[in-house]
Design goal:
444 residues; mainly beta; 5-stranded antiparallel sheet; 3% helix; 41% strand
Length: 444
């Protein structure tokens, strides 16, 4: 009796349906195309896969024998590996929904080498059903300010960001996300407008010497993020005044300070920056701007020279006072800043108007490593594990006295940056360093 039921069941099986179709068929829409992927089915020992067959219609494909739906077959793919389990159906009409199913053919290897459509193969039943609707490509094009980096905008003024948006779904929003240079948290505003021309304002109180950076984003009908720029952030440079620079006066070496100025100064001549102190007078104030044979060169002898972004200076006023703010322009924050380093010690500064953790400082173009970075506040302070602060200068040396390039990456500051601080010299280090400014010398 059991054998009779088994025979009846076998006779009722659809002809040519030796197994279930390929599992986990999926469809992802694109512009005028849909991309299908699926997994390979399990076959019996002695059988081998020959090809996959793709079926498409604008209506659901029924659970018939695949041979009865042959007119809906659009592709045959040799079953040669993982790459054969994907298919892009192109040349479609955007907005039209397409339905898909996939089958697989297999044959017994002991009956000869099976081939797709050959006499010794069987086609499986259909896979699961999927559907997808191609859509027009969604794009965002920033039209203002310039990207990847703008001409400087004035500090304190509102900044209008404008975008040409194409094919954004009616139920999706285009967002402007922005932050000040060195910040981690992003502010977000909805962009508004009509006919694909959208805009949003960044309040002028965010436009400082830190600079600004932004991106624009939305979703396409598939739920994928579309953004401009495609990677990273667009940088907005800001023209602003530096802070006034003050320090205690004195004549001893502990009164010296390493200083620098963030940004790209509008008039970088030393005579302009230090004009409030009057004509150069070594008995009233002193200035040193370079290292030659382990000694510093006195910049006061040539105040017509200029200070470059990322350059440090030794400064000592006899009397306590302040340098007036000077006009500067923020350094772009969408790329690292590079400072060439000579052999031996170098005087450098942080070119950005915000703290940069030492974890974001490295050297390139050298066989050496970033061996030592020291600040000075009356004592030399090892910056390892600390940060580079704006308005301060630093002594830097590559190992073995090699030359190279110092790279300062202006990434977002870590949450703990406000609490981070430079630590004192490590007793395990054997540092041979001395600071000499005129007659002042401080061996470490």
């Amino acid at each position: 009796m059991t054998g009779r039921y088994a025979l009846i069941f076998w006779l009722l099986m659809p002809l040519g349906a030796w197994a279930q179709g390929p599992p986990n068929l999926e469809a992802v829409p694109g512009s005028q195309e849909n991309t299908l992927t699926w997994n390979a089915p399990t076959v019996e020992q002695g059988d081998s896969l020959t090809c996959y067959r793709v079926y498409r219609d604008t209506a659901p494909i029924p659970d018939d024998t695949p041979a009865d739906q042959a007119e809906k077959r659009i592709a045959e793919l040799e079953a040669t590996g993982e790459s054969s389990r994907t298919f892009t159906d192109s040349g479609l009409s955007n907005g039209t929904t397409y339905h898909y199913r996939v089958t697989v053919e297999a044959g017994e290897t002991d009956e000869g080498t099976p081939s797709c459509g050959g006499p010794n193969v069987d086609e499986s039943s259909f896979s699961n059903r999927v559907l997808a609707t191609p859509f027009a490509a969604v794009s965002l094009q920033i039209t203002g300010p310039e990207t990847p980096v703008s001409d400087p905008v004035d500090a304190g003024e509102d900044i209008e960001v404008t975008v040409e948006a194409t094919n954004v779904p009616s139920d999706e929003t285009v967002w402007l996300q922005y932050r000040e240079g060195g910040r981690s948290a992003l502010s977000e505003d909805e962009m508004t407008g009509r006919d694909g021309d959208l805009s949003a304002l960044i309040s002028g109180d965010r436009a400082t010497l830190r600079g600004l950076e932004f991106k624009v984003l939305t979703l396409n009908p598939a739920g994928d993020t579309v953004r401009a720029p495609a990677d990273g952030m667009a940088s907005i440079r800001v023209a602003a005044e530096t802070k006034s620079l003050s320090q205690p006066g004195g004549t001893a070496q502990i009164a010296y300070r390493l200083v620098s100025f963030p940004g790209d100064l509008e008039d970088p001549q030393l005579s302009n920056i230090f004009a409030p102190l009057g004509p150069y007078n070594p008995s009233e104030w002193r200035l040193f701007d370079g290292v030659t044979d382990e000694n510093y060169t006195e910049a006061g002898n040539n105040l017509s020279s200029s200070v470059a972004p990322g350059e440090g200076l030794w400064f000592l006023p006899r009397s306590t006072g302040a340098l007036s703010p000077v006009e500067s322009r923020s350094i772009r924050t969408d790329q690292p800043f590079e400072i060439p380093l000579e052999e031996g010690w170098n005087l450098i500064g942080n070119p950005f108007a915000f703290d940069v953790p030492m974890s974001q400082v490295r050297v390139e173009n050298t066989a050496g490593t970033l061996q030592e970075v020291f600040g000075y506040n009356g004592d030399f302070v090892n910056q390892e594990g600390g940060r580079l602060e704006p308005y301060r200068g630093y002594l830097v040396r590559i190992s073995d006295g090699k030359s190279g390039t110092l790279v300062i990456a202006p990434g977002a500051e870590p949450a703990s940056a406000a609490a981070a601080s430079a630590r004192g010299p490590d007793a395990r280090w054997a540092v041979d360093l001395s600071a000499q400014v005129g007659q002042a010398r401080d061996p470490v």
